[in-house]
Amino acid sequence: MKIAILSQDPALYSTRRLREAGEAQGHDMRVINYLRCYMNITSHRPSVVCNGKPLEDFDAIIPRIGASRTFYGTAVVRQFEVMGVFPTNESQAISRSRDKLRCLQILAREGVGLPVTGFAHATQDIDGLIETVGGAPLVIKLLEGTQGIGVVLAETYQAAKSVIEAFRGLDANILVQEYIKEAQGSDLRCFVVGGKVIAAMKRQGAEGEFRSNLHRGGKATKIKLTPEERSTAIRAAKAMGLRVAGVDLLRSNHGPVVMEVNSSPGLEGIEKVTEIDVAGKIIEYIAKNATSGKTRDRIKY
Questions:
Q1: CATH classification for the domain delimited by 2-88, as one of 3.40.80.10, 3.40.50.20, 3.30.230.10, 3.40.50.2300
Q2: Other beta carbons within 10 Å of 148
Q3: Is pTM, for the whole model, over 0.90?
Q4: What is the rounded (10 degree) CA torsion for 61, 244, 140, 167?
């Protein structure tokens, strides 16, 4: 098969591993910087052009779209879909997962476990917003933040009120969520491919840090999921319409709750911790499922 990896940097671990895994399985792999592509939008012969040459005859694409490039990146993915090329994740599913509020609303509609969450923009009723999630301590997030940036733990009512007022002054959209104290600064990253959890790890935040992101000093260990955690991760990925996803869970007193569903999960941490060939399993899934024109997203919201 001829497979394109849409990535800005061929040297990134995830991009490099996907290319190596594909070549090891006998596929023709190419890394394409989607920001350097442009699109010929026509009814009869739509195409994606890069360096003056149409990108033709691809059987599948693997989108690795950066969070700050979602709009243009998903446009390129959508153009490949118009051409009948199979994507590991469709453009609509990527856009859906990148919108934190929409993601939470869809998961809530599907009955997937979530932290109690409030959403606001310029609310004057700060007290009511705080009480919505059970009071302090609570977590306040910028809607547009990524990788733990724009996430604040407010341990007291007054601290929560001050942070919300500050974000309101920035004309920002914010999410307010209950603080899952029993998680003790850790979360679970579940890697879902084709409706199955193929690997999982526990990430523990650094001393004094409630965010568990590995690039912030967190450490990861291999973990065995409970059946409920496995089912929650699979349901979350399915609700987003994602074939490949990283689902982040917290262990709460009322069961697993979903914090985030990532459409371009990194491979480095989970491959090194679990010693599972995640890249290889993604390529295997493509080889079994890639069919021309199979790009029909059936999620209605």
A1: 3.40.50.20
A2: 16
A3: no
A4: 10
pLDDT digits (tens, 9 = 90+) for 161-208: 888 888 877 777 888 999 988 888 889 999 999 999 999 999 886 665
Structure tokens of 225? 């999921």
Measure the CA–CA gap between 70 and 146, rounded to whole angstroms.
12
Residues contacting residue 256 through CB under 8 Å, at least 6 positions apart: 113, 188, 226, 228, 229, 232, 249, 250
97-112+182-263 carries CATH number 3.50.50.60: no
Q: Give pLDDT, residue 94.
A: 96
- Return the CATH superfamily for domain 117-179: ATP-grasp fold, A domain (3.30.1490.20)
Helix (H, G, I), strand (E, B) or coil at 23: helix
**Amino acid identity for residue 71 in this structure:** F
The C-alpha R_g of the chain, in whole angstroms, comes to: 20
Instruction: Tell me the two tokens of residue 242.
Output: 């994602």
Separation between Cα atoms, residue 131 and residue 212, nearest integer Å: 26
* The token pair that represents 70 in the structure block: 């979602």
Query: For 63-110, what is each residue's pLDDT tens digit?
Result: 999 988 999 999 999 999 999 999 999 999 999 999 989 999 999 999
Q: What is the largest CA-CA distance in the chain?
A: 61
